[in-house]
Amino acid sequence: MTRIAFFGGTFDPPHRGHTEAASWVARSGEVDEVLVVPVYGHAFDKKPWLDFEVRCELCRLAFGGLDHVSVSDIEATLPRPSYTIETIRALKRKYPDASFRLVVGTDIVSDLPRWREAEELLRIAPPLVLARKGYDGPGIAADLPEISSSELRAMLVERRASPSPELEARLLRFLEPQVLARIWERGYDRNLPRSSARGTPST
User: What is the per-residue DSSP string for 57-113?
Assistant: First the structure.
């Protein structure tokens, strides 16, 4: 039976914190494959900066160089809003001979009981916990960079307004080169409102 880690997220955009987390899980020995699953749209969150198709495109670039890691766009085929339990049920139908684990950080564990059908979710996909700095609890001891997605988007806005080698170097600390290149090449940064530069940081 193939052991699959379900690594869901908005990935808006996918950054090195995401890719390093996937790499740690893939090398943990707990699973055989890591399936990166961008959410189509959260039930209550505001609309992501990037369209679903673009986030999938950038995820394939970001995670493409990692062994035993792949990207699934299965949420495009599911009813909205997106709930993790429904996505994993769909994946179990697609991969009936696989077992699943739900990748979460120690910062999320306390929220799991409030997720939709939490008891059933944790039964069909027991959590695979990644330790996060500043949060107590057991988990895979992954030394992951702390990256704020909103601060990253603010840097992209700043770079669009005032490009500089220093800012480009800062962005490359957080984004894979191929992801940053695709954002510039396709002009995805033009979709970011200038207010992003003054947003409250959040991950």
Answer: HHHHHHHTTSTTEEE--GGGGS-SS--HHHHHHHHHHHSTTEEEEEEEETTTGGGGG
Same-domain pairing of 118 and 164: no
Q: What's this model's pTM, rounded to 2 decimal places? A: 0.89
What domain range includes position 159?
A: 149-194
**The residue to which tokens 């939709």 are assigned:** 116
Residue (of 133, 115, 135) closest to 125 by Cα position: 115
Q: Which uninterrupted H or E stretch holds 157?
A: helix 149-161
For residue 35, being part of any structural domain is answered with yes
CA–CA dist 150, 198 (Å, integer): 9
pLDDT in tens, 167-191: 999 999 999 999 999 999 999 998 8
Distance of CA 85 to the CA centre of its chain: 17
According to DSSP, the residues that pair with 3 across neighbouring strands are: 99
Check: CB of residue 187 under 8 Å from CB of residue 27: no
- Three-class SS state of 129: strand
